[in-house]
Structure formats: C-alpha cells, structure tokens
Amino acid sequence: MLREFRTDLHVHTCLSPCGDLSMSPRKIVAEVLRQGINIIAVTDHNSAANIGAVTKAAEGAPVVVLAGMEICTREEAHVLAIFDNETPALKLQSVVYNALSGVNNPDVFGLQVMANELDEVEGFEERLLIGATDLSVEDVVRAVHKLGGLAIAAHIDRESYSVIGQLGFIPRAVTFDALEVSELTSDKDARTRFSDYMRYVFVRNSDAHTIDRIGAQTTRFLLEAPTASEIGKALRCEDGRKLVSVETRIDNRQSIVR
Questions:
Q1: Which partner for 112 in 98, 125, 136, 147 could form a disulfide, CB atoms 3.0-4.6 Å apart?
Q2: Contacts 24+ apart (CB under 8 A), 163-171
Q3: How do residues 185-206 score in pLDDT, each as one tens digit?
Q4: Total-model pTM
Q5: 177/67 Cα distance (integer angstroms)
Q6: What contacts 30, CB < 8 A, 6 or more positions away?
Q7: Mind listing the domains of the chain with CATH numbers?
C-alpha cells in the first residue's frame, strides 16, 4: 500500500568540517523525530564514516536513515549520492577517498569528528573532506548508479558548489535522478530560471549543518516503503509512486507547494 513519507535527504553530521559539533548521531535523530520526518539521508562531505552511527542511533525509532554522501567533483560541483544502506556508500567512499588529496587543518576548516551511536568521539578524520576530488561530475554520477544509488545535483541555484554554478549548464551526458533547489529560490522562480531542465524532478532538502536547520526544507513522496529505490520510482513517477509536495519552513511554519 502506498503512503506519504516526509523526507530530508541532505543532512550533515559532525564529520563534515563545516558541520556543527552538535550534529551528533543521537541529537540528529532526536530532532528528526521532533520534526516528524520519516526518512533522512546522512550526506557528509566526501565521506560515509558516520552513517553507521546515525543508523544505530535510530534503531527502534520511527525514522529510516538512508546512507549518502555529498561529493565535491573536480569541477567543484556538489552531487548527492543516496543508497538504501551503508554497504554501497562505503564502496563509493573508497572511490572518493582514492580521488581526494590534502590533510585537514582543524583550525582553518573545523574538526571532522567520527562518532558512535552514543555520541562518543571515536576519532578524527584527517583527510581534507572539504576539498574537491579528482572525479568529474560524469564520473561521480556513473559511479553512484553503478552501485545502485540515486544521484541528485545539490543546490543547483547556488552560485558556488553547484553543477550549474560551476559549469553554467547540466551536461546532456549526465543523468541525474533529480535536482535540488535551496530555499534561496522560490518554486515559481525555479521553474522560470531552470526551465531548460523541467525534464527533471525538483526536490528540496535542508542541507542541515546545525540542529536547528534539520527539516528547514523537506520533500514528501508517495511510496510503498521507505527506501532509496522507492524514492527513485517516485522521481520517475513509476507504479503510482510520486513526489507529493515540497515544503519550506518559514518562521516555524510550513509553506507547502504541491
């Protein structure tokens, strides 16, 4: 039976160097439950190392944690990779790590904290996760799809770190599953500004780096089950699955566009 699921598919943890240290597994899960969100994707910069901890922290709670990553390509464009579980995400992490160079400077970029499900610090990632990989946009999307995941162009309306901002267009050879729009752009303006890309579904997520940002933007899908593969069907409007609405929180109120 199909039912609605409210999702936030772009959530960082304390592993992301620009993520607040309050973005620990248990605190993330607590806020997601408070916001009434059914599905989240953990999408740290160039790493999947904290997915397992958030997943364990959510055990027994009415929320599903999908495994993801926000990958910075050679062109310095951000691409969201989303999977059903940690296994393919960790395989992609190996690819990303091999294409990533540089050592983090915590004083400049911030700490990159690896935590467990009890919010205990287990270590610090020394790779420069905020940096760009040596993978092109096409390389990343191909790798995500090869592992059975969804590839979403992140915050396409931003001037920096977006595919359109960096390249000026979305290459025809790149087959994204959806395009993400930030709260900087209204739905009306997005349809006008990105009219060349209406073949894609536009989604909204919080891109939360702090606790208070979780759920700032969400997308509701009609699905049979809370999985990445079901979301993929909804993005393709298959078998009755579909995107129902996108929501932007304004002054603690929800603005809903269907």
A1: 125
A2: 163/75, 163/77, 163/79, 163/137, 164/194, 165/77, 166/75, 166/76, 166/77, 167/75, 167/77, 167/137, 169/196, 170/197, 171/137, 171/138
A3: 999 999 999 999 999 999 999 9
A4: 0.95
A5: 16
A6: none
A7: 3-257 (3.20.20.140)
